[in-house]
């Protein structure tokens, strides 16, 4: 058993939670070019994102990721929830069953700079109507909805129905 897991839900389906922070500057969003991660390397992605760690709320994870990946501080009061994206491969490996919490912010302290050059090759502001290619597919779905101004509270990705 893992720390913090009492085993009472071993028979239940589990998902991996993650937090995404989309820094906004008008109609632009800050993206990073993934490299060296083993997942979608060569794709553009949210500049700050990552898994929620044990004992951490999704809001705490969002703030931590912004600090770790970009060297900036975001006040929780300035995080705007955008959508929750349930994605995965039905009956696929447990690691690929996800619930992603997307936030935006237009206010932070510090200048965003890549803090993990082993995981990202570039950082770029891009207009939502002129995103670079390719963008991580599930993130692209959320960014397209943002561009259209029609973001459902809950979205799904990777399911047949």
Short description:
Helix content is 16%, strand content 32%. By secondary structure, the chain is an alpha+beta fold.
Give an overview of the whole structure.
By secondary structure, the protein is α+β, with helices and mostly antiparallel strands. The protein has two helices and eight strands, in the order ββββαβββαβ. Strands 1, 2, 3, 4, 5, 6, 7 and 8 form an eight-stranded mixed β-sheet that branches. The longest helix is centred in the middle third of the chain and has 13 residues, at about 60-70. The model has no long low-confidence stretch (mean pLDDT about 90).
Q: What is the average of the pLDDT values?
A: 91
Give the overall shape: globular
Oligomer class: single chain
* Percent range of helical residues: 10-25%
CA distance, first residue to last residue: 34 Å
Main structural class: alpha+beta
Order of helices and strands: EEEEHEEEHE
Total beta strands: 8
Query: Which spans have pLDDT < 50 for at least 5 consecutive residues?
Result: none
Largest sheet: 8 strands, mixed
- Kindly estimate the percentage of residues that lie in beta strands according to DSSP: 25-35%
What does the radius of gyration come to? 16 Å
Number of helices: 2
Features:
globular, 161 residues, alpha+beta, single chain, 8-stranded mixed beta sheet, 16% helix
Secondary structure topology:
Layout: E1 16-25, E2 28-34, E3 44-46, E4 48-51, H1 58-70, E5 80-87, E6 98-105, E7 120-127, H2 137-148, E8 154-157
Parallel strand pairs: 1-6, 5-8
Antiparallel strand pairs: 1-2, 1-4, 2-3, 2-7, 5-6
């Amino acid at each position: 058993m893992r720390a913090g897991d009492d085993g009472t839900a071993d028979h239940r389906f589990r998902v991996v939670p993650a937090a995404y922070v989309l820094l906004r500057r008008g109609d632009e969003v800050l993206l990073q070019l993934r490299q060296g991660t083993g997942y979608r390397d060569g794709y553009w992605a949210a500049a700050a994102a990552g898994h929620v760690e044990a004992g951490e709320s999704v809001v705490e994870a969002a703030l931590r990721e912004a600090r770790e990946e970009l060297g900036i501080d975001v006040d929780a009061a300035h995080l705007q929830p955008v959508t929750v994206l349930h994605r995965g491969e039905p009956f696929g490996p447990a690691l690929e069953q996800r619930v992603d919490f997307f936030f935006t912010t237009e206010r932070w302290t510090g200048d965003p700079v890549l803090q993990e050059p082993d995981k990202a090759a570039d950082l770029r502001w891009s207009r939502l109507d002129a995103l670079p290619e390719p963008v991580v597919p599930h993130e692209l779905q959320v960014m397209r909805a943002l561009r259209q101004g029609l973001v459902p509270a809950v979205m799904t990705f990777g399911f047949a129905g």
